[in-house]
Amino acid sequence: MSSDAQTYVNDMAAARGYVLDYHKKMAAADFPVLQAANQLVSAAYLDQRALDRRTKELIFVTSLTVMRAAKGHIQSHIKVALDLGVSPREILEAIEIALPEAGIVAFQAGFEAWAEVIGVEGIEPETVVHEGGSPSTTD
Amino acid sequence: MAAWRDVLGTNDPAGLEAVSTLLAHANRHDALDPKVAELITVAAALALRAPANVRPHVKRAVEYGASGAELFETLALSTTIGGMSVLVDGLALFEELGVRAEASTS
Q1: pTM of the entire predicted model
Q2: Residue A34 lies in a domain
Q3: A13 and A42 housed in the same domain
């Protein structure tokens, strides 16, 4: 990675509060395209305009959920929202908007992302049943 | 075209009741500010390219005090996730609904 790309990744981390694997790998593989993509993101997400940062994070959490983004991507915005003082309940209610909009499958992924970050324990049945798994279960 | 509730209620009353119950619960917001909840729903519907869902939620967002600038910023956020097709469709919907950055819908 060039020193310019390294500096760019460092600056991204400072500005956003997170850096995705995609950012790190694009910085190494095609730095100019990463910069162009981030100009779009900066205009909509990072620059302070009409919406406050808390609202923007909630919009991202729900939009990523309905688009079935990777769990880690959803969680990065959940964590930033929490850092900004958004309550776990507010984030859950935002994710629940995805349920009627995009259906149970999309909702489950967002909910699991939230539950894992928050550390929610489920209520286990008191009878023997098949394991139902979760969106992140691979086997 | 008839409203979806009318069509579903005529053909599947039990289905309408189930969907209505889901909508009532999922749209019950104890913690979320109602304007923020509507902007989130607009963003989700834009990303899903679901114009029938965008229209009522844009109107409700405006009723809760959302400005045109806030709605355009919501569209910009959806565009970063959904791409140019979201932007183009969203701009057409905003035009249809009279959303302007300097003023809200009438």
Answers
A1: 0.86
A2: yes
A3: yes
Q: Which tokens hold the place of A25?
A: 């790998």
Task: At B90, list the tokens.
Answer: 């969203």
How far is the alpha carbon of B3 from chain A, nearest alpha carbon, in Å? 17
- Which residues in A lie closer than 8 A to residue B36 (C-beta atoms)? 55, 58
The alpha carbons of chain A give a radius of gyration, in whole angstroms, of 17
CA distance A111 to A99: 10
Interface contact A55-B36, CB threshold 8 A: yes
**Which residue blocks in B1-106 are alpha helix, DSSP H?**
4-11, 13-26, 34-47, 51-63, 68-82, 84-97
Q: What is the pLDDT of residue A1?
A: 60
CB distance from B54 to chain A under 8 Å? no
Residue B66 CA from chain centroid, whole number: 12
Q: Which residue of A has its CA nearest to B47?
A: A63
Complex ipTM value: 0.89
Q: Which two tokens stand for residue A6?
A: 């390294």
Percent of chain B's residues with pLDDT above 70: 94
Chain B: residue whose CA lies nearest to A37:
B80
Domain coverage including residue B38: 32-106
Write out the residue range of the structural domain in which residue A39 sits: 1-47
- One-letter-per-residue 3-state SS of chain A: CCHHHHHHHHHHHHHHCCCCHHHHHHHHHCHHHHHHHHHHHHHHHHCCCCCCHHHHHHHHHHHHHHCCCCHHHHHHHHHHHHHCCCCHHHHHHHHHCHHHHHCHHHHHHHHHHHHHHHCCCCCCCCCCCCCCCCCCCCC
Q: Would A138 be classed as within a structural domain?
A: no
